[in-house]
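Severity: low
Component: inverse-folding endpoint
Summary: output formatting inconsistent between runs
Steps to reproduce: submit the following structure tokens with default settings.
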């Protein structure tokens, strides 16, 4: 009995707790039972067609809503206008009550809504790109020009200046006078020029050249002592004699730690040994190429780029190591910077090994030159070579040619 009374009390508590889901559910269920209703049962006192009548009423109320939903929605612009007109009318009524019935308000100026606007006028003059004043300095044995800040010093081409670089204080030649360039062309931080070269600086530079020549015999002596296979290319002192740099070539890596100690003991300054490639050696020494002009790397090329035999093929050059290699023993640099022009022009010009139809029959292109506009075709019928223009040919396809490159030519490419 006690347990039943406790259960009854607990049920009453759950029924009267508004936030308790179980109590609310039981209270709702008991009400339905008192009223003679049950779940999924029809009401006792209603006719059988009551549900149908209620459904008809619901459908009747839903029909106007459906018709309203089928009507085109009122545009944002029209709603905005209606609100604006109601606001203006309310404002006019308030002003009429304040100033009397004879008050006539001034018409408000026409307003532009968010959906009816005119684009802002474009600036006649675009904002100029930010520029900075620089001076171009070129150093010994180099064609690359480096930018420095002139610091209100006026420089002319051909003058000399003293600048501080990552290698130390150096003596350089002015290749470009003061000029304004875009900030995108400058590598920051832009180091300043220390000063214009004075007469004392010129004399010191000449003295450093003599010291560099006297350092060569000592280099060869110490290299032979340590039994190293290293070929000296150049020697360079910084302007303040704080560093002495030796440039050399060698096959593979060289352990020159003992050599550095021996050289430092003789020259009593900081020693730097830098291994360079054969291209850099040609750039330092200079010379004349097969074309009869000075080396491109010595005169105007700032950096070395990858050169491949494929470039020589696309330029219709003879694949002979003596014809396409330079004095450095590598492929000529001119193959690279001329390649872009050939690639652009041959995009619309027939290439070698293309099967074509000609006015005299079918054949294969054996030589194509967009510079002259002449195309040599080997005819299929008699194996003769005939010359045609671009407009006379119709390309049909390409011959699959095995791309064999000799080992001698592969050695010319940069690794």
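Observed output (run 2 of 3):
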């Amino acid at each position: 009995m006690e347990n039943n009374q406790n259960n009854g009390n607990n049920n009453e508590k759950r029924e009267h707790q508004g936030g308790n889901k179980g109590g609310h559910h039981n209270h709702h269920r008991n009400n339905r039972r008192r009223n003679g209703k049950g779940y999924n049962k029809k009401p006792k006192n209603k006719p059988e067609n009551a549900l149908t009548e209620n459904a008809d009423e619901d459908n009747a109320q839903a029909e106007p809503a459906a018709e309203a939903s089928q009507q085109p929605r009122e545009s944002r612009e029209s709603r905005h206008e209606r609100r604006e007109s109601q606001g203006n009318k309310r404002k006019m009524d308030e002003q009429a009550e304040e100033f009397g019935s004879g008050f006539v308000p001034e018409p408000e100026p026409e307003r532009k809504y968010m959906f009816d606007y005119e684009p802002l006028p474009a600036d006649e003059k675009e904002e100029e790109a930010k520029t900075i004043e620089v001076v171009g300095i070129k150093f010994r044995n180099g064609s690359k020009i480096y930018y420095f800040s002139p610091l209100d010093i006026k420089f002319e081409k051909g003058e000399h200046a003293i600048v501080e670089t990552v290698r130390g204080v150096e003596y350089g030649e002015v290749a470009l006078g003061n000029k304004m360039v875009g900030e995108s062309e400058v590598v920051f931080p832009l180091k300043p020029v220390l000063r214009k070269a004075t007469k004392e600086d010129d004399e010191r530079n000449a003295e450093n050249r003599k010291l560099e020549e006297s350092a060569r015999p000592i280099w060869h002596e110490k290299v032979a002592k340590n039994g190293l296979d290293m070929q000296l290319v150049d020697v360079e002192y910084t302007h303040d004699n704080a560093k002495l740099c030796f440039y050399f070539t060698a096959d593979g890596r060289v352990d020159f730690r003992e050599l550095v100690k021996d050289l430092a003991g003789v020259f009593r300054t900081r020693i730097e040994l830098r291994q360079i490639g054969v291209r850099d050696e040609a750039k330092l020494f200079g010379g004349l190429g097969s074309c009869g002009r000075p080396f491109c790397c010595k005169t105007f090329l700032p950096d070395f780029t990858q050169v491949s035999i494929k470039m020589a093929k696309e330029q219709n050059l003879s694949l002979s190591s003596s014809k396409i290699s330079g004095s450095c023993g590598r492929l000529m640099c001119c193959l690279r910077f001329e390649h872009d022009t050939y690639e652009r022009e041959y995009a619309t010009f027939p290439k070698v090994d293309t099967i074509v139809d000609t006015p005299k029959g079918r054949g294969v292109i054996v030589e194509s030159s967009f510079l002259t506009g002449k195309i040599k075709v080997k005819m299929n019928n008699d194996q003769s070579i005939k010359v045609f223009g671009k407009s006379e040919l119709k390309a049909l396809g390409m011959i699959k040619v095995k791309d064999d490159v000799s080992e001698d030519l592969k050695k010319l490419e940069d690794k």
